Amino acid sequence: MREVELGWGKVLLLKDNGEFHALGHKCPHYGAPLVKGVLSRGRVRCPWHGACFNISTGDLEDFPGLDSLHKFQVKIEKEKVYVRASKQALQLQRRTKVMAKCISPSAGHSGSTNVLIVGAGAAGLVCAETLRQEGFSDRIVLCTLDRHLPYDRPKLSKSLDAQSEQLALRPKEFFRAYGIEVLTEAQVVTVDVRNKKVVFKDGFKLEYSKLLLAPGSSPKTLSCKGKEVENVFTIRTPEDANRVVRLARGRNAVIVGAGFLGMEVAAYLTEKAHSVSVVELEETPFRRFLGERVGRALMKMFENNQVKFYMQTEVSELRAQEGKLKEVVLKSSKVVRADVCVVGIGAVPATGFLRQSGIGLDSRGFIPVNKMMQTNVPGVFAAGDAVTFPLAWRNNRKVNIPHWQMAHAQGRVVAQNMLAQEAEISTVPYLWTAMFGKSLRYAGYGEGFDDVIIQGDLEELKFVAFYTKGDEVIAVASMNCDPIVSKVAEVLASGRAIRKREDWRHVLAHWERILSSYGVNLGMHTGTPGTEANPWGQVPISNFPGFPKAELELSQCLPLAAWLSGKASATSTRYSPHKASAATDS
């Protein structure tokens, strides 16, 4: 792949199976340079967040994001490559797929098919757009508790002072043009599956033929003494985030919870608040999700930015002065000054309105669905944070993955199955976080990992961490090592397992001379795997698709992280957590 200057912009020029293709060079999601991504199986995967685009059409094949790439005309003459592109396409760098328009206005026609979508997050919006892309021209109604049109929710905790207009995923003109009705501040209180009808809090009733339930989750709140004091927030809306920033400027902020939301908020507030403190029940941030060593490395980064941690403790009381928060009292008896408090201690599925509906809920309140995102009620689908579903590449294990990218994928599957296309959810989970200008990327599903293999330098925050269960790699995380996570995601998406290998020394010895001709230095060591003489120890090894045959064969013999990064001299360390578990919150 190459990024090539062309007139008013650039194109991504690539060659696959002897054929040249030219596409837009930036990912429409957040603008990542696709030349740094992964080319495999006829598609290019974004190096930042894992979105995939078909190289023959430019179409978006996997998420996150809503738009596709422009595909440019390529001609070969006398061993020269010519690309033809319009000025507008070169400058816009995104293409919205052709969509049908609604021919059934809100007044409706007898016999028209109505789709009702409860929840206007990623799953709901992608479902509505996919229906239109597939030619569905009947009425679609999207209802949301928010006062806003669908917006980029992950940005709330990463950019707290962003205004709702800046976060909008589509302008209001888009919804008007394609006949997608959006009901804001609309709370569903009852679903009548027998009569195919929903009832809203204000008494309004709406019938449906197909129903998508994508209500998302509700943030957990503190249950301690003083929980009713002012200036204690959960972040759910742009207004919540904006108020936190306004109140925290030059004052003392306390974050309860060292998960992704809490740590992102803490990082953002360090340049705004007088002090930032984090309270966490675990001994290290992200421990259940990323392991102890990675968690400690990230914790050190925060401490270097003047964030104070209170670990292995909880909030016992919130003290106020004139009704407003002034102190947070911990169970460890410490008292922390606080003018504003953000609570990020997890969430619960927002499914209370379904308890008497006949739609199945599990013991935790999640909606179980099958591979086609169908509930136990015909014609009723569910997607997003509130569902459990079979994760294909983990042997169809039922999981809940409340990630933005996953919600996109589920929304598309719902739309396809509303149209009887028999699609199944099969995407590999992919998430990211940004703190202090550094991004951590993660792919896979690490629940139950029992070993972590770390390649690189944790102190420099340039590393790859492979999470394994038994002999299999089930997840990977990295910082400053793009596009390794996208490469691993592509391998997992292809259905190939990445496994450890104990007896690999003779393989490396056999190929060392051959690989040296490719400019690859294996940094061979002698000794027993896992010793200082041989720091590689057990490392994941796999076949990787999308590369020339010779390289593919060689990749079978290289340690995974070394092959991915091209740096076989990196060190490898291991960590076995005391509690083999991993959370799934993003």
Automatic annotation (TrEMBL):
GO terms for cellular component: mitochondrion. It is found in: Mitochondrion. Pfam families: Pyr_redox_2, Reductase_C, Rieske. Transmembrane segments: none annotated. GO terms for biological process: execution phase of apoptosis. The keyword Transmembrane helix does not apply. Coiled coil: none annotated. Induces apoptosis through a caspase dependent pathway. Reduces mitochondrial membrane potential. PANTHER family: APOPTOSIS-INDUCING FACTOR 1 (PTHR43557), APOPTOSIS-INDUCING FACTOR 3 (PTHR43557:SF8). Belongs to the FAD-dependent oxidoreductase family. This is Apoptosis-inducing factor 3. The lineage of its organism: Eukaryota, Metazoa, Chordata, Craniata, Vertebrata.
